[in-house]
Write a structure and sequence with these properties.
heterodimer; A: mainly alpha; MetI-like fold; 2 domains; 11 helices; B: mainly alpha; flat
Chain lengths: 345, 334
C-alpha cells in the first residue's frame, strides 16, 4: 500500500507538470495585450519597458520555467517563513528567513503576489463550499440508505424524483430562484454574501448563518442529488448479498444488519465518490459564488479572466488541477485502505 | 445448489417418466423477437423515461417549428411595448400591462419573450446536440482504439486520465475568453461562438464515454464471433465496424443522453457568466443572466428560461435513466 501510494505520488508530478505546461501554452496563445489599458500617450519604448517588467520579453519556454521556479521554489520559501514566523503551530521555531526578495508570481491587476490574494480569498470559499459539502453529505447519506432499504416505496420514488430534479436544475437557476423567494418576497435572508462580516457575538453569528444558508443550500442540493443516488445504488448492491441473509439468520436486529453490516460495506465506494467530488465542487462553486457575490477564488478567477490577468488565471487553474490530482490520489488510496479485497501491489 | 449430482438424477428420472412426445422439438412457440422490440417494451414500462422522451420531443419540435408558427423576430425592438407582463398575470393583477401581441411579455427593450425563448431554445439545443455528437465521436473513437489495439491502450488511457484531471469549468472559461476574438473575426460573431463552445465542450467531455466503450470492447473482442470473423480474414476496421460498434451501441446511447444534458447546462452556464454568445443573440442562459438584475419586478423572465433549461435537462436525464434500464439485459424482462 505504501509503495503504491509513493508510486502514485511520484507519478502525479509529471501529470501536474504536463497540465501546467498545457495551461501555460494555452494562455500564451491569448490574443489579449496587458498593455491595452495603458493610455496611448505613453511612448512605445516605455510600453516596451513595462512589458519587460511584467516578464513578457522572454520566449514562452523561459517564461514557463520562471513560473515554475517562482511557484515551486520561491513560494514554498515564503510559506515556510510565514509558518515559522507568524503561524500558531510552528511559531515557536526559530525564524527561518529563507526568502530574501526574489520575484514572486505577481498579479498584473494589483502588482501584488498572486498567492497572497489567493490566501485572502480561500477562507470565504472554504466556508461556503466546505460547509455546503458537509451539509450535502449529511443529507444525502440518510436519504440514500432509507430509499434503498425501502426500494420502490413512496419515499424512494419521491427521493429519486427530488434527486433527479436536483441533478437537472443548474445552480444559476436555483440561486436566483432562492433569492427571489427568500430575500425579495419573504425577506428572510440577505441576497448578497457580506465577506467583511466579523463574527463577534450571538447577533453577528446569527447574521453569518442567515447569509450562508442560501449559497450553502444551492451547492448542497447538487451534492445531495449525486451522492444519494450513489448511496442508494451501493446499498442495493449489498442488501441482496448472502452475508446479509446470514446476519438476519443469526437473529441480529434489523437496525444492526442495515446500519452496521450493510452500511459499512456500502460506504466504501461512496467515500471515494465523496473524495472525488471535493475538487469538482470547487469548480462548480464558481457559478454559485458569482450568483451570491461571494468573493472567493471562483469569483477571483472570473475577474482575473475578464481583466486579462494571466499569472492569476494560470495559478488559479493550476490550483484547481492540483486539487483534482490530489483528491484522485486520496480516493484511490482510501479505496485500498477501506476495502481489504483491493490489492494494488 | 443446482449443479449437485442429485439434481441430475432427479432430472433424469423426470425425463424417463415423461412420454417420448414431450421430448419432440415442437419449435419455438412465439416468433423470435428482435432485441430492439424488447428494449422498447422495457422502455415503455419506465414512466419517467416516457415522460422525459415525450417532453424532449415536444421541446425539440417546438424550437424547430416555433419560428414558423410564431413569426415575430426575436431581435426586433418594439420599444412602445416594452416591459410587458405575460398574459396570465392578468388573472390576479388586472392593472398589469398585458396583451396578446406578446403572450409571454416583452423585455426592457421590447423584444418578444416567446420568440426569444424559441430562438434561445434553438441555440441551446443546437449547441447541446452538436457538442454531444462531437464528444461521442471522440469518446467512441478513443475507446474503440484503446480497447481493440493493445499498443494504443496505454497511451490513450493515460491521455484520458490526463483529461479527467483537468479543471473543466475554469479551462472552459479560459478557452472561451481567450479564443473569442479570432474565431469571431473568421466565422462571424454567432458562428464563431458556436464553433468555439461546441469544440470546447466536446473536447472536455468525451472521457467517460471512452472509458465505458473501452471496457466493453475489451470484453467483446475476446468473444467467439470476433475470433470467427478474424479467422476468415476480416480486417481490423471491418471487425470494428461490423462486430464491435453494434455491440457497444447501448452504453454509447446512454452516455449520449448524459452528454446532451451536460452540454446544455454547460452552454447555459457560460452564457450566464457572460462569456457565451454575443449580447443580441438570445440563448436560455443569456436570457436568465440578463433578467437576474430585474427579477424583483419581472420574475417571469428568470423563471421562463430557467424552467425551460431545467425541464429539458430533467427530460434528458429521465430518458437516459430509462434507456439504461431498457438496454441492460439483466433488468429487461423483469
Amino acid at each position: 500500500m505504501l509503495t503504491y501510494a509513493a508510486r502514485r505520488l511520484v507519478l502525479s508530478i509529471p501529470t501536474l507538470l504536463f497540465i501546467s505546461f498545457v495551461i501555460f501554452m494555452l494562455l500564451q496563445l491569448a490574443p489579449g495585450d496587458p498593455m491595452a489599458q495603458v493610455p496611448l500617450t505613453v511612448p512605445p519604448e516605455v510600453k516596451e519597458k513595462m512589458r519587460q517588467a511584467l516578464g513578457l520579453g522572454e520566449p514562452p519556454l523561459v517564461q514557463y520555467w520562471k513560473w515554475l521556479v517562482q511557484m515551486f521554489w520561491t513560494e514554498p520559501k515564503v510559506f515556510i517563513d510565514w509558518l515559522t514566523r507568524d503561524s500558531f503551530l510552528f511559531g515557536w521555531l526559530p525564524d527561518t528567513s529563507l526568502y530574501n526578495g526574489e520575484l514572486r508570481v505577481l498579479s498584473w491587476q494589483t502588482r501584488s503576489p498572486v498567492m497572497d490574494i489567493v490566501l485572502q480569498r480561500i477562507p470565504q470559499t472554504l466556508w461556503v463550499v466546505g460547509m455546503s459539502y458537509i451539509v450535502g453529505v449529511l443529507i444525502a447519506l440518510p436519504i440514500g440508505i432509507y430509499s434503498a432499504y425501502r426500494q420502490y416505496s413512496v419515499f424512494d420514488q419521491a427521493g429519486t424524483f427530488v434527486t433527479m430534479v436536483g441533478f437537472s436544475i443548474p445552480p444559476f437557476f436555483t440561486g436566483p430562484l432562492l433569492i427571489v423567494i427568500f430575500s425579495v418576497y419573504l425577506g428572510w435572508f440577505p441576497s448578497i454574501y457580506d465577506t467583511t462580516h466579523v463574527v463577534s457575538d450571538w447577533e453577528s453569528f446569527k447574521y453569518q448563518l442567515s447569509q450562508m444558508i442560501m449559497p450553502v443550500m444551492v451547492l448542497a442540493l447538487q451534492t445531495t442529488a449525486q451522492l444519494s443516488r450513489y448511496m442508494r445504488a451501493s446499498m442495493l448492491d449489498n442488501l441482496n448479498q448472502d452475508y446479509v441473509r446470514t446476519a438476519r439468520a443469526k437473529g441480529l436486529s434489523e437496525a444492526v444488519v442495515v446500519m452496521v453490516h450493510v452500511l459499512r460495506n456500502s460506504m466504501i465506494p461512496v467515500i471515494t465518490v465523496i473524495a472525488l467530488g471535493v475538487p469538482a465542487i470547487f469548480g462548480g462553486a464558481i457559478i454559485t459564488e458569482n450568483v451570491f457575490k461571494v468573493n472567493g477564488i471562483g469569483q477571483l478567477l472570473i475577474t482575473a479572466l475578464f481583466a486579462n490577468d494571466l499569472p492569476m488565471v494560470m495559478t488559479l487553474t493550476f490550483i484547481f488541477a492540483f486539487l483534482i490530482v490530489m483528491f484522485n490520489l486520496i480516493a484511490d488510496i482510501l479505496y485500498g485502505l477501506l476495502d481489504p479485497r483491493i490489492r494494488y501491489d | 445448489m443446482t449443479d449437485s449430482p442429485q439434481d441430475d438424477v432427479i432430472l433424469a428420472e423426470g425425463a424417463r417418466a415423461a412420454p417420448i412426445e414431450a421430448l419432440k422439438d415442437k419449435g419455438p412457440l412465439a416468433p423470435p423477437r428482435s432485441k430492439w422490440r424488447d428494449v422498447w417494451e422495457q422502455f415503455r414500462k419506465h414512466k419517467g423515461a416516457m415522460m422525459g422522451a415525450f417532453f424532449l420531443f415536444i421541446i425539440t419540435f417546438g424550437v424547430l417549428l416555433g419560428p414558423y408558427l410564431w413569426t415575430l423576430d426575436p431581435q426586433a425592438l418594439d420599444i412602445r411595448n416594452k416591459d410587458m407582463r405575460p398574459i396570465y398575470t392578468a388573472l390576479w393583477n388586472s392593472e398589469a400591462k398585458v396583451g396578446w401581441n406578446h403572450p409571454l411579455g416583452s423585455d426592457q427593450l421590447g423584444r418578444d419573450n416567446l420568440s426569444q425563448l424559441i430562438a434561445g431554445g434553438r441555440a441551446s439545443m443546437a449547441v447541446g446536440w452538436a457538442a454531444m455528437l462531437l464528444s461521442l465521436i471522440i469518446g467512441t473513437g478513443v475507446g474503440v482504439l484503446a480497447g481493440f489495439f493493445k499498443k494504443l491502450d496505454g497511451p490513450l488511457m493515460r491521455l484520458t486520465d490526463l483529461f479527467l484531471s483537468l479543471p473543466i469549468l475554469p479551462l472552459l472559461l479560459v478557452a472561451v475568453t481567450l479564443f473569442r476574438q479570432p474565431l469571431r473575426a473568421n466565422f462571424g460573431p454567432e458562428g464563431g461562438m458556436f464553433i468555439l463552445i461546441v469544440t470546447v465542450v466536446g473536447i472536455t467531455s468525451w472521457m467517460p464515454t471512452a472509458r465505458i466503450v473501452r471496457g466493453d470492447v475489451l470484453a467483446i473482442k475476446e468473444r467467439e464471433f470476433v475470433l470467427a470473423a478474424r479467422s476468415i480474414g476480416t480486417r481490423p476496421f471491418q471487425i470494428i465496424k461490423r462486430h464491435l460498434l453494434p455491440n457497444v451501441l447501448s452504453p454509447i446511447m446512454v452516455s449520449a443522453t448524459l452528454g446532451l444534458a451536460t452540454a446544455i447546462i454547460t452552454e447555459s452556464a457560460l452564457s450566464f457568466l457572460g462569456v457565451g454568445f454575443p449580447s443580441d443573440f438570445p440563448t436560455w442562459g443569456k436570457m436568465l443572466a440578463d433578467a437576474v438584475a430585474r427579477m424583483e419586478d419581472f420574475p417571469e423572465r428568470v423563471l421562463l428560461p430557467g424552467v425551460a433549461i431545467s425541464l429539458t435537462v430533467l427530460g434528458v436525464n429521465y430518458l437516459g435513466d430509462g434507456l439504461r434500464d431498457a438496454l441492460d439485459p439483466r433488468i429487461r424482462g423483469r
